[in-house]
Amino acid sequence: MTNTPEGSKRPITTSAIGIGLATGAYGLSFGAISVASGLSALQTQTLSLLMFTGASQFALVGVLGAGGGVIAAVLTAWLLGARNGLYALHIAPTLNLRGPLKPVAAQLTIDESTAMSIANDHTPTHSRHAFWATGISVYLLWNIGTLLGALGASAIGDPAVLGLDAAIPAGFLALLWPRLRDRTAWAIAAGGATVALVLTPLTRSGVPVLASALIAVFAGYHLRDRT
Amino acid sequence: MIWAAVLLGSLGCYLEKLFGFILPPTLLDRPMIRSVAALLPIAMLSALVAVQTFGDGQSLVIDARVAGVAVAVVALLLRAPFLVVVLAAAISAALLRAFGVAT
Q1: What residue ranges are annotated as transmembrane (chain B) (predicted)?
Q2: Minimal CA–CA distance to A159: which of A27, A33, A26, A30?
């Protein structure tokens, strides 16, 4: 084994496994929360296998669990997943894929794999290795975590007694937390929460969260030259 | 109906990813697209926190979930991992209910 001048790939693989393990713990809570929200273990697992983007999955089960209906749940998941398309646009030239690998890479394009790919972009080879290693590691462990969480919650029962209904907003908060990096982010978070709370008594369930997306569109329009 | 949401939601989220590999990268040159996509998760996740903490159908209530979320904030400030944050919120809400302090 000789190292390339740019360094070995092994540290990248190690980080990718570490990120996968941490995400597996997210998957565990997703599985439990999804079952507590009324989805079956099979529906929960299908989301992790096919949707495979955490925030959208949490949002879909959250909106369904609160009685928001199919349309609001689906639209919320789509809007939250839009950023993955941006990630794909960003990393596609580096990955430089042809043929059947393209649709596989698409499914693995999420926060973690994109961040690792960009963090290791000193050579295209390392960047590609980081993307695939992280994507595969997170996919496997996210799905194993989901399975264990869903089966565990199915075995325990009555979610309100256990406080799982408090775990749902805590889960969203933990997803939001690392994004609150500056005052703009805090202002948009405050705006989104305010819109949702004001609309809750006035509209049917599911609409308040969708309406909060308008805050992002409005702010994005005004900040378009600053980001 | 849940299956419809699961499958439609999954299909759309996959197509969003796939379009990124098919569409021209010059789309990234449009600042409006970039900034809206970056800000959407912040506004919507925050709305979800608010609604799932205080919402009960169409009414707003204060119950054990608020205490659970407050504990989650403390856990996040202490840089606790995701699973610890979520468990701390669930356990504190469950304890308050078990002792009859909150509903």
Answers
A1: 36-54, 66-96
A2: A33
**Nearest-neighbour CA in chain B from A122: distance (Å):** 20
Question: Rounded to a whole number, what is the distance in Å from the CA of B74 to chain A's nearest CA?
Answer: 11
Q: Is B77 on the interface with A (CB under 8 A)?
A: no
pLDDT of residue B38: 85
Give the integer Cα–Cα distance in Å for B46 and A172.
Answer: 8
- Please count the structural domains in chain B: 1
Q: Report yes or no on B37 lying in a domain.
A: yes
Question: Is the separation of the CB atoms in B97 and A163 below 8 Å?
Answer: yes
Q: Is the pLDDT score of A102 beyond 50?
A: yes
Residue B60 parent element (H or E): strand B59-60
A217 CB within 8 Å of a chain B CB: yes
* Of residues A1 and B54, more confidently modeled: B54
Domain that holds residue B88: 25-98
User: Within a domain: residue B16?
Assistant: no
Asked if A59's CB is within 8 angstroms of B47's CB, the reply is no
Answer whether A164 touches B (CB < 8 Å): yes
Q: What is the model's pLDDT at position B83?
A: 85
**pLDDT for A135-189, tens place per residue?**
999 999 999 999 999 999 888 766 666 788 899 899 999 989 999 999 999 999 9
B7 found inside a domain = no
ipTM greater than 0.90: yes
**Residue A38 φ then ψ, to 5°:** 110, 0
Distance from CA of B47 to the nearest CA of A (A): 4
Q: Which residues contact A9 (CB under 8 A, 6 or more apart)?
A: A125, A126, A129
